[in-house]
User: Which sequence fits this backbone?
């Protein structure tokens, strides 16, 4: 486990320290918070897509479920924010359990079914008939727990947990077995791997981190509508960031978020009219020329990328 | 092979249907520890299907598979691996993006029988050395040629310490020198007490390594005995060469 401690020391620790210190030096705290949220989501996508090959097009379903899990706890039971965040994570895990039959599908079929499932959850939550519980389409306002500073540090804690999880996958027989299942599930079962159990664990793990991130997001913004927290932008961005950097690595999704979300905000501020054009071209170029992500520039040369 | 040993695997009246087609139609045979049994027969006679059923890829539609005294028909593959059954594939299926070493590591980490901690798993170095994969150990499996991928498939199986090993056309595509070498290796494995079932089209190879063959046709066994006797059996000649040669 020498590599694992190296990865924790040289990737996880600097990332956490930098984001913990940045609010003191940089005024746009919302932007920093969004960076942390996307780092969590991109790593969550990495866990399920990078290590098992399931592309979660409806990943936002877990995020939104976490946000509403948080909101319902705070609105109806006046629970403290941290506890409500944990409940948000558990709600996402419960949703993940409900959706485990989707794992029977593969490739595009899984991606589409997962997208449909996230839309179903959105319309369930936004149903006016549930106004008494979720406030339906009218959105929630959670002024009682509003505390962006604490929410930001909670997000960093979840980021540390998530990156720690990926470090574990990258350095353990468990992570290796997951990748074996991704490569060839028949051979993996003939290597003694219980493929169903493996897939479900990875699936629930990635649901948990998205749910925790959703709960913290609800805590941070405190006022939101179903369309905000179930926006497909979260799924798409998290997937694109993870792919851009390179999945099944620890650093890939981090690099992807820092560069692409950085560019996104840069273009968004300076030349918003070109934003979609530039972003679209960038993604097309990525898919055409670097399908295995930025890290493949290094791995092609035989360099090992953690 | 000593004939007094009790069979480690007993297949009786095995049936496997695909829609209306009977791939296996009442197949029965057995194999004892240390024996190399050949399964031969024309294409579509059910050789690979029987291996797929025994290794848990398909559940049987009828009949029984008894391994070590317990009925195992329909059990999940990974559980059969833990009981001591493993196999290679006709088209090798390594984990392409993982290195050769990582491929074997998965089987070493997950393929060991539960509650059998006393017996040490085979050593990585020894497997790499014995199956000529040492030089490519740290390359992705995708870089290997087909003979090397076959050896990797075999080492993946051996890393789980099988007591019954099913080899599906391991020899196809190997050159004569490689064939001799792998024949020696298979015999050495059988000498350790491993029961081995070999599916193969290369009759010379079958002749060289098997103690006994089962000839299959249309999902049933039509002959059991040595290959030398099989070639004089009219029914065997008929299914291999056509009716007019049998007389």
Assistant:
């Amino acid at each position: 486990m020498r590599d694992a401690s190296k990865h924790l020391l040289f990737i996880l620790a600097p990332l956490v320290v930098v984001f913990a210190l940045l609010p003191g030096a940089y005024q746009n705290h919302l932007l920093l918070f969004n960076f942390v949220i996307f780092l969590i989501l991109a790593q969550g996508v990495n866990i399920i897509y990078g290590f098992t090959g399931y592309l979660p097009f409806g990943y936002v379903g877990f995020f939104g479920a976490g946000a509403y899990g948080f909101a319902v706890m705070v609105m109806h039971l006046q629970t403290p924010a941290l506890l409500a965040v944990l409940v948000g994570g558990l709600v996402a895990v419960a949703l993940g359990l409900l959706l485990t039959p989707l794992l029977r599908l593969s490739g595009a079929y899984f991606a589409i079914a997962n997208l449909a499932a996230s839309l179903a959850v959105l319309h369930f939550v936004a149903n006016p008939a549930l106004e008494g519980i979720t406030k339906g389409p009218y959105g929630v306002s959670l002024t009682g727990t509003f505390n962006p500073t604490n929410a930001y540090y909670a997000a960093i804690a979840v980021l540390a947990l998530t990156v720690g999880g990926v470090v574990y996958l990258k350095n353990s027989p468990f992570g290796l077995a997951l990748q074996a299942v991704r490569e060839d599930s028949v051979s993996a079962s003939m290597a003694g791997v219980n493929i169903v159990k493996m897939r479900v664990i990875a699936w629930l793990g990635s649901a948990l981190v998205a749910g925790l991130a959703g709960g913290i997001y609800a805590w941070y913004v405190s006022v939101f509508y179903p369309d905000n927290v179930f926006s497909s932008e979260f799924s798409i961005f998290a997937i694109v960031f993870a792919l851009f950097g390179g999945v099944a690595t620890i650093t890939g999704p981090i690099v992807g978020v820092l560069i692409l979300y950085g560019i996104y905000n840069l273009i968004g501020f300076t030349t918003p009219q070109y934003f979609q054009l530039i972003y679209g071209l960038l993604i097309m170029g990525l898919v055409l020329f670097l399908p295995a992500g930025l890290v493949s520039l290094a791995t092609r040369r035989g360099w090992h990328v953690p | 092979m000593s004939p007094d040993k009790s069979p480690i695997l007993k297949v009786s009246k095995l049936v496997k249907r695909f829609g209306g087609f009977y791939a296996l139609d009442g197949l029965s045979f057995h194999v004892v520890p240390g024996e190399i049994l050949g399964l031969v027969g024309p294409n579509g006679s059910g050789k690979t299907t029987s291996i797929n059923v025994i290794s848990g890829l398909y559940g049987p539609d009828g009949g029984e598979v008894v391994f070590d005294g317990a009925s195992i028909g329909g059990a999940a593959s990974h559980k059969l691996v833990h009981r001591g059954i493993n196999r290679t594939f006709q088209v090798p299926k390594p984990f392409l993006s993982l290195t050769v070493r990582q491929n074997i590591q998965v089987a070493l980490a997950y393929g060991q029988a539960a509650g059998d901690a006393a017996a040490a798993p085979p050593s990585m170095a020894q497997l790499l050395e014995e199956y000529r994969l040492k030089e490519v150990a740290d390359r992705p499996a995708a870089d290997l040629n087909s003979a090397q991928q076959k050896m990797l498939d075999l080492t993946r199986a051996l890393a789980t310490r099988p007591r019954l090993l099913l080899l599906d056309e391991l020899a196809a595509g190997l050159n004569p020198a490689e064939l001799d070498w792998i024949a020696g290796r298979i015999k050495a494995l059988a000498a350790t007490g491993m029961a081995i079932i070999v599916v193969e089209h290369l009759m010379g190879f079958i002749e060289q390594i098997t103690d006994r063959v089962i000839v299959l046709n249309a999902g049933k066994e039509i002959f059991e005995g040595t290959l030398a006797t099989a070639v004089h059996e009219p029914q065997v000649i008929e299914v291999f060469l056509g009716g007019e040669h049998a007389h």
In short: The beta strands of chain A are 140-141, 223-224. The interface with chain B takes residues 173, 176-177, 179-180, 183-184, 186-195, 248 of chain A (CB under 8 Å).
